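Typical record was shown:
=====
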Amino acid sequence: MHRLAGNRSGDALETLVMVVDWLRPKTPENKGWAEGRMNYLTIALESSDLLPPPVLDGLRHWLGKTQFFNAFAGLGVFSRRGFVREFAERCHEHISPTPPAHNYLRDILPLVFHQETDPRWVASVSDESWSRLFLAVRRALVLPGRPDPALTPIEAALYAMEMLSIWGAAEELEPELMRLDPELSQSDSAFVALQREIALYVEQARARLNQPDLPESDDSHARVLLDQCREQLARFRKKILTRGTTISLAHLLERLDQTFTRIEDLLDVLSLDPAVGGAARGRLFKRLVQASSERHSPRLLWQRNVRLLARNITESASNHGEHYITRDGREYLAMLRSAAGAGVLIALMALLKLWIVELPLKPVAETFLVSLNYGLGFVFIHMLHFTVATKQPAMTAACFAGAVEREEQGRANQKKLAALLIQVCRSQFAAVVGNVSVAVAVALLVGGLYRHLTGRSLLAEEAVVYQLHVLHPLLSLALFHAAIAGVWLFFSGLVAGFYDNRAAYLDVRRRLRRNPLLTALLSPERQGRLADYVHDNYGALAGNFIFGLLLGVTGYVGSLLSLPLDIRHIAFSSANLGYVMSGDELSPAAFLLNLAFVLLIGMINLLVSFFLALWVALKSRSTRMGRLSALWRAFYDRVREDPLVLVLPPRVLSQIKTGEDPMK
C-alpha cells in the first residue's frame, strides 16, 4: 500500500506493474506466495479507504479508455491472414517490435507481465483466486451514480464473441474445407447455425445491459452448436488422414478450434452463474497472459502448425507399421521369407557397389552410380514385396506411439504395450535373421563361384583389410557411421509419410485414372491398376529411393567437408563380410567375431531410427511415454517368464515344447 501511495500521478499502467511485481514469487513454482499476497490485496481492495484516491481514479480512467476487443478476439487465436503471412509478421515483430499502444489490453499485458516466468506462476494460481481479485477491483472502482466500469470489458466480450462467430461461419467457404467435405456447400452447417445463435444471444445480452429487468439470455443452444462445430472439426481431422493435409490447412483447423474455444470462454465469462462466471474469468485471464507472451514467437507458431502435418505423416507410417508386426507363426514365416528375398538382392547390390568403387571414376561419377545402386535397389526390393530389416523401426515406432496415445486415453494398459513391444522385437529379429543369413550365404556362394571360375578371390587383399577394419567398433568409427545410417533410416520414414500425405492431398489415384497420356497408352484396366499401385506406394517408393541416395552421398559429403562421415548398414555389412569370408581369409572364430560386429552395427541402426521415429510420433500426438518404468517392468516380467518369446511366436513355442511340428 505504501508503494501504491507513492504513485501520486495515478498512472494505471505504473500501478499495474507495481502490483504484479509485488505479487510475483521468486520462483514460478511457489504459488503459495502469489496466492497469499493476492488474498491480502483482495482484502485491501474491499476496504477502499486503504487505496489512494489517485490510484482508483487512474484505474477507472484506464478501464474507460482501454480497448479489450483485440485481446478477446485476437490473443491466442491464429491470424485469418494465413500461416505464411502470420509467420512472416511474427518474424518481423520478433526482430523489430511495434511500439505498444497503452490503450490496448493486448499491448498492455506484455508490459505488465514482462518476465519470462510470469505465465507459469499466473497459471499456478487458482481460477477462483483471480476471480475474487477481479471482483474486489470491480467493487472498489464502482462509484454511486456512475456507470459500472465493468461494462467496457463486457461490451467488448459481446462484440468479440459476435465477430468470432462470423469469422467461423466464413471459414466454411474455404476451398480446403470444401475439398474435405463437399457437402458443406449443400447444407446449413453448424458453423453458420452457431453464428446465427450467437448473434441472437448478443442482441439479447446487450438489451439486458440497458434494461436489467429483462430475462437472462439463454446460451444452452449456442453450447450445443459449439459441440456440433467441434464434431465437424473432428471429422475434418479424421478425413485428412485419407485426403492429405498441408501446413495451411493445419493452420486453418487450429484457428477454428481456437475460435470455438474462445467463444465458449466468453460465454462462460458472461454467465450469470457466479460459480461458472468466476472460474471462467480466471481461466480466460490466464490464457490471455500466456498468449500475450507467445504473441510474437515464430517458433511456437511453427511448432503448433507442423504438429498436425507431422501427425498425418506419422499416422501414415503407423498404418504401414501394422504390416511389419508379426503376431502368429504364419506372419512370422512370411516375414522370414520376405527378409530372405531382400537378403538376396542386398548381396547383389553390395557386389555391384564393390565393382563400382573399383572403376577408374571421378568421385562425383562414383557417388552418382553408388547412390543409384542403393536407391533403385531399395525400390526394386519394395516392388517385389521384400523386407529390409532396418526399414521396420521407423514404421513400427509410429504404430507403437499410437498405442501409447490410446493408453493415455484409458483404452490400453502397460501389459498390452509390453506385448506390442515384444511383437515388434520378434518381428525385427525375424527380419534381421532373414536379411543377414541370406545376404551372407549369397555372398559366400557368389564369392566361392568366382574363386572357382577364376582361381582368385573376389576381393583384393587391400579390400579385405579395409572391409574388416570398418566393421571393428573400436578401431574404426563403425558405430558412429551406423548411427548416421540410423538417422537416414528415420528420415526416409518421414519422407515416405510426407509423400503418402502428398499423394492423398493431390488424389494421385484419380489424377492417373484420368491422365490422357496413360489413357492413350494403356487399357482402362491396366491404367486403373497402375493408378492404384502408384497411389498406395507413392510414399514407400520415394522413401526407399531417397534413403538410397542418402546412403550413397554421405561419404562424398564427408570428403568435401573433411569430416569422418560415412554409413554402416547391417545388411550391406553382412554381405561384405560374406565376400571376405568367401576368399578363405578368415577362420571360423574370426568370422563369428566380425559377425558379432555386424550385429552390433545393426543394433545401432535399429535403435537410433526407432527412438527418433518414436520421439517424433509422440511429439506429433502431444503425447509422452508416461509411466515408462511400468512399461519396462511389464516387458521385463514377460521376457523373464519365457525369453524365447522375443524370437519366436507363442504358438510356435508351445508346439516346440509339446513336441509338435511347428511347420504344420
